[in-house]
Amino acid sequence: MLDKRSLSLVIGLLTKTKEYGVNWQPTTSSNSFIVTSDDVTISISHGTDDNTDVGFVAISLRDKLGKTMDNFWVEENEQEYKMMLELYTFARRKANNVDETMDSLIKKLSEGGEFGEKASY
User: Fold this and answer.
1) In the structure, how many helices (H) and strands (E) does the chain have?
2) What is the pTM assigned to this prediction?
């Protein structure tokens, strides 16, 4: 269960992310995304606990030197999991430009003619 301040941060990030106001960036890990503001980097990641096979979403706060200031997570059986997973999903879509890519594909599909590259064998 998240404490009041952590919950407020998650709600704020989710609200702002839904409004396309958070510039999430990809990392070298395919399941982790970051945003930096005021010398603090926030990372969000999603995974499964190796020991219990329970899904989780985690957030970490790091200072400008990369030192972990705090981290917290929720597991899929906890109340805040759905909200944290929604934040993770929006962050992933933003960092990977999913909406822009899908808009481009939808436009190409509506133009008529062939879609996709022909095999070159």
Assistant:
1) 3, 5
2) 0.88
